[in-house]
Design goal:
Blueprint (H helix, E strand, L loop, with lengths): L1 H26 L11 H32 L17 H29 L7 E8 L2 E5 L5 E2 L2 E4 L4 E7 L4 E4 L6 E4 L5 E5 L5 E7 L11 E7 L1 H23 L4 H10 L25 E3 L5 E3 L2 H9 L22 H13 L2
Parallel strand pairs: 1-5, 4-10
Antiparallel strand pairs: 1-2, 2-3, 5-8, 6-7, 6-9, 9-10, 11-12
Helix pairs in contact: 1-2, 2-3, 4-7, 5-7
Bound molecules: dinuclear copper ion (CUA).
Length: 342
């Protein structure tokens, strides 16, 4: 039985190639470290798919390469190959098996999604604001951070919104990805399980500086979180008190960096996404509607809180989000800083 021998050899080769391919994929270390409870079911599913991919790769490549080597046309043999006219049994088998696999994967995927979306009613909440091109994290206790601090082993519900276009919140170590859609609040639940520093990056092309739209995500112990949290509260109170007094250009300069103004407005006269702040105060600013306005304190404050009210000629109407989350004193600090840029 010459045929039987070929089948046995091919069978063994498929097994060997499957295993080698699977361990080859694992050796590539395609997945970053898993840092959340929700990463586990996703990685389990990835593993299952790596196994299936390895097996199907072998099932296709082994018979193909084997045939190329052992069933080559002999030198001088010009005769036709045997004429094969369908094979009902084979066709039933190769329809039924993939059908079963696909249905099984569907059921497994749904079960997996259920685990990933599991709700902990005790979950803390943080508001995530994405904009061109940065992230801001607003904590319910009333302070805002440019870093997302999270306590380990506690579920947090991120309520996400975009100020301009569609962005996507993605921390590869958490595995899950969720879009931020203008005019809508989307949710993202995560339970960090590994202390460390990660990075959220925007995973939806959103303009010129999409590639730089990233922020630190820091997972710390419960104690460190409480300490950080109290420190932020203290700083926020301090900043509010300080700003309530006399406006200060130094604080304004710090806000220029922390609040993200720096991403679009230069202070050296160069043109950015937005107009430069150099020599802006009390200058005459041409507007898109053909009129012009003097850049006094009222105009600057309005442009920070309601940027599209008066659009500067040559700039995009909805390019800038409102910074209305800033306290009145902070707006005055920023204006004081702009005044100092002669
Ligand atoms: Cu935001 Cu890409």
């Amino acid at each position: 039985m010459q045929n039987k021998k070929h089948f046995i050899i091919i069978g063994i080769l498929i097994l060997v190639v499957s295993v080698v391919t699977y361990y080859g994929i694992l050796a590539l270390n395609l997945l970053p470290v898993a840092a959340a409870v929700q990463s586990q079911p996703i990685d389990w599913l990835f593993d299952l798919e790596f196994k299936l991919i390895s097996f199907f790769f072998a099932v296709i490549m082994v018979p193909l390469v084997y045939s190329l080597i052992f069933f080559r046309q002999k030198e001088g043999d010009d005769s036709d190959g045997p004429h094969v006219e369908g094979h009902t049994k084979l066709e039933l088998v190769w329809t039924a098996i993939p059908l079963i696999i696909v249905i099984a994967l569907g059921i497994i995927g749904a079960e997996n999604l259920k685990q990933v979306l599991a709700v902990d009613p005790q979950a803390a909440q943080v508001k995530v604001v994405g904009y061109q091109w940065g992230w801001r994290f607003e904590y319910p206790e009333g302070f805002t951070s440019t870093k997302l601090y999270l306590p380990v082993d506690k579920q947090v519900l991120l309520k996400m919104e975009s100020l301009d276009v569609i962005h996507s919140f993605w921390v590869p170590e958490f595995r899950i990805k969720q879009d931020l859609v203008p005019g809508q609040i989307t949710e993202y639940r995560i339970t960090p399980s590994l202390i460390g520093e990660y990075k959220v990056r925007c995973a939806e092309i959103c303009g010129n500086e999409h590639a730089y739209m990233e922020s630190p995500v820091v997972v710390v112990s419960q104690e460190d979180y409480v300490a950080w949290h109290d420190e932020q509260l203290r700083l926020a109170k301090e900043a509010e008190l300080a700003s309530a007094g006399k406006p200060d250009a130094g604080r304004g300069q710090a806000l220029y960096v922390e609040s993200g103004c720096k991403a679009c407005h230069s202070v050296d006269g160069s043109k950015g996404v937005g107009p430069t702040w150099k020599a802006l105060y009390m200058s005459s600013v041409p507007l898109a509607d053909g009129t012009s306005v003097t850049a006094d304190e009222a105009f600057l404050a309005e442009s920070i809180l309601n940027p599209s009210a008066k659009v500067v000629a040559g700039y995009n109407a909805n390019a800038m989000p409102s910074f209305s989350y800033l306290k009145e004193g902070q707006v005055n600090d920023i204006i004081e800083y702009i005044k100092s840029l002669k």
